[in-house]
Design a protein that fits this description.
Helix content is about 70%, strand content about 0%. The protein is built from 18 helices and no strands. The longest helix is centred in the middle third of the chain and has 30 residues, at about 150-180.
Length: about 450
């Protein structure tokens, strides 16, 4: 996956964002959060699905298209843009993300106002999706460099905001739809407000972010002796080109794809799913309660990123993925068996699944660092996110297509989702097996010891 040479304005050049001596590394997490909290809005897409379906006469599968394309573009832009992000620095990457993400909303707003659905797909999915991918990887590599002593916690911080974005966007969007109306004009106005507000918020990250000076390390910290660490932490470096030739890379690709598919299927359809699930009970779920459910999932998604990823620093990456995939499969089984018998049980299980989903995302950069070293970890991470693109199509497609088919067959309630749930159990079992196959990388893939690390971005 190659790179392109693009002109970079001097103010965004990497050399202009090198931190001066004495600059606190704890100012970098807020910069990362301003980007990830904004682009994490993607997880609140389900709030817009019912009004889009009714105002533009769309099926559930069609209304998922902007979200699916956005996730596909996220993975592709992260995979192809990872090298550019490493070369041009986080300030450039955050600026690109700001322009794409915000203009994506403005195009989608025009599409909703003129009832041209393809413009919503193009704006939110394609243009906005590029902003998602570049923004997602922009602070990850920078934070790993600022926090070499706590890589799991650092990646947890970086990616936590993405999981929490819907916590803000979901109730905010629901309130706007209530105020502006849930017809196409109200949706257009909501998209317009979101685009402009996120442009202002994301600019804070652009202004605040800094990269460490070459050779910088935390005061009093020395790199651990490779002989003293666990077998999966090699201490050696592997290039991005060699990494994709190893079975370890593809094992991680499979486990990430399975874990993400299992979580994203719920996320994309969260609001209508909880409404459908309990529609036949004595206390059905209303629109406001459904938006609250989306916000709770977002809270689980966000906190899982920090808590589980930090836990992986203590118990190891392989063990923490055993938890994500094994306990995730059991939680889905409970949902399938219990049906609509208990709302609290449904909420606990879905929150657990979403916390493992978030944890899986946040821990994967540290897993890559353990196996392949820090040499080109940002570029390897970008390539691995194609698993997310695949899952972004698979998860919503499985859940929506099966639910649409079951609805056409006259079924209601949990029966709309039972088959999807069992498919997710199977996928998580496949991911669990892939994790068990992860072994230390063979030394023939290692870079020579004298490799110049300052060229890591090449």
């Amino acid at each position: 996956m190659g790179s392109w040479d693009l002109p970079v304005p001097k103010i965004l050049d990497r050399s202009r964002s090198v931190a001066p001596p004495g600059w606190s590394r704890w100012l970098v997490p807020p910069a990362a959060l301003s980007i990830h909290l904004a682009i994490g809005q993607a997880y609140a897409w389900s709030v817009f699905k019912p009004p889009l379906e009714s105002s533009l006469n769309l099926s559930g599968t069609l209304s998922a298209l902007p979200f699916q394309l956005g996730i596909v573009m996220l993975g592709l832009s992260a995979a192809f843009g990872g090298t550019l992000v490493e070369r041009n620095g986080p300030r450039w990457a955050m600026s690109v993300s700001l322009v794409c993400f915000s203009s994506g909303f403005l195009i989608a707003s025009l599409g909703a106002a003129t009832r041209q659905y393809w413009l919503v797909v193009l704006g939110y999915g394609f243009v906005g999706g590029i902003g998602l991918g570049i923004g997602y990887i922009s602070p990850v590599s920078t934070l790993i460099k600022w926090f070499p002593d706590r890589p799991g916690m650092a990646t947890g911080i970086a990616i936590m905001g993405f999981g929490g974005g819907a916590l803000i966007a979901s109730p905010w969007s629901a309130q706007m739809l209530k105020s502006f109306g849930s017809d196409s004009s109200g949706i257009a106005l909501s998209f317009l407000v979101l685009g402009l507000a996120y442009a202002v918020f994301m600019s804070l990250g652009v202004l605040l972010v800094r990269v460490p000076a070459p050779g910088w390390k935390p005061a009093g910290w020395t790199a651990p002796d490779p002989a003293a660490v666990t077998p999966l932490v090699s201490g050696a470096d592997v290039s991005a080109r060699n990494a994709i030739r190893t079975p370890q890379f593809w094992c991680l690709w499979v486990l990430l794809c399975c874990n993400v598919t299992a979580g994203i299927g719920i996320l994309e359809k969260a609001a209508p799913m909880v409404t459908d699930f309990f529609a036949d009970t004595s206390v059905p779920v209303g629109a406001s309660a459904a938006a609250g459910f989306v916000a709770m999932l977002s809270l689980a998604n966000m906190s899982g990123r920090f808590v589980w990823s930090s836990t992986s620093d203590l118990i190891g990456r392989k063990n923490v993925y055993r938890l994500y995939l094994g306990a995730g499969a059991l939680s889905y089984l409970v949902i399938a068996i219990a049906g609509n018998a208990s709302k609290p049980l449904f909420i606990i299980c879905t929150m657990l699944i979403l916390s493992f989903y978030g944890g899986g995302f946040a821990t994967i950069p540290a897993y890559l660092k353990d196996l392949f070293g820090t040499y080109q970890v940002g570029a390897i991470h970008g390539r691995l996110l194609t698993a997310w693109s695949t899952a972004g199509v698979l998860g919503p497609l499985i859940v929506n297509a099966i639910a649409d088919a079951q609805k056409s067959a006259g079924r209601t309630g949990p029966a709309l989702y039972t088959m999807s749930v069992y498919i997710m159990v199977g996928l998580l079992a496949v991911g669990f097996a892939a994790n068990e196959f992860v072994r230390p990388v063979h030394p023939r893939f290692h870079e020579p010891k004298e490799a110049p690390h300052e060229h890591a971005h090449t």
